[in-house]
Amino acid sequence: MLFGIQEKYHFILASRSPRRQELLKEAGFEFAVKLVDYDEEFPVTLKGKEIAEFLSARKALSFSEDMISQDEVLITADTIVWCQNRVLDKPRNYSEAFDILRVISGNTHEVITGVTFRVSEKYHTFSETTIVKFDILSDEEINFYIKRCKPYDKAGAYGIQEWIGLIGNSYLQGSYFNVMGLPVNRLIRELRVFLEGLN
């Protein structure tokens, strides 16, 4: 619960994602949305959760000091899909979405969200991993999903809450909401510890 937190701090969410905004609202957060351009490249030596944490922290540190006041908590997040030792990015077009979903079809992958809190110059980053498996998807099912849902803004080219998750997801270990883009339960627990450490 947010008792004692919301009254003391103002929150900023640095995300365009309507799913992240919806999840934070459902959890009881009141927040403003602020966006900043940042470099989404990462060192090729990074793997899995290291990538998600690196990108989340980079986004938080891309905010200048004058963009965040002393009583504001900045929250940034970055979700990646890690499969067969590589990142499955957001698809740029129909062909890329189809190819990504063919990789996911019948395979197990990891959905990893890096989250960073920042207050002034102090920040804290963590990540949450959910293991997801899909049944083998037919080309017809993949084509239908892409045409219907246009998943071009989603890492791994799918939304677990959409049609493809309903018919294809056969196994999930970890936070379902993490797959949607934000591990809310873990976020609240980590946030309490972070803010207590500031006092």
- What distance lies between the first and last C-alpha atoms, to the nearest angstrom? 19 Å
User: Fraction of residues in helices?
Assistant: 25-40%
Q: Taking Cα atoms only, what radius of gyration do you get, to the nearest Å? A: 17 Å
Number of helices: 7
Q: Which shape, going by the Cα principal axes?
A: elongated
Question: Which regions are unreliable across 5 or more consecutive residues at pLDDT < 50?
Answer: none
| Percent strand | 25-35%
Q: What is the typical, i.e. mean, pLDDT?
A: 94
Task: Briefly note the structural class of the backbone.
Answer: alpha/beta
Order of helices and strands: EHEHEEHEEHHEHH
| Overall number of strands | 7
Main sheet specs: 7 strands, mixed
Structure, described:
The chain has 199 residues and is of the alpha/beta class. Helices cover 35% and strands 26% of the residues. It has 7 helices and 7 strands; from the N terminus they run E-H-E-H-E-E-H-E-E-H-H-E-H-H. The protein has helices at residues 18-26, 49-61, 94-104, 139-149, 163-168, 176-180, 184-198, and strands at residues 10-13, 31-33, 72-83, 86-87, 108-119, 122-134, 169-173. Strands 1, 2, 3, 4, 5, 6 and 7 form a 7-stranded mixed β-sheet that branches. Strand 1 (10-13), helix 1 (18-26) and strand 2 form a beta-alpha-beta unit. The longest helix has 15 residues, at 184-198. The mean pLDDT is 94.
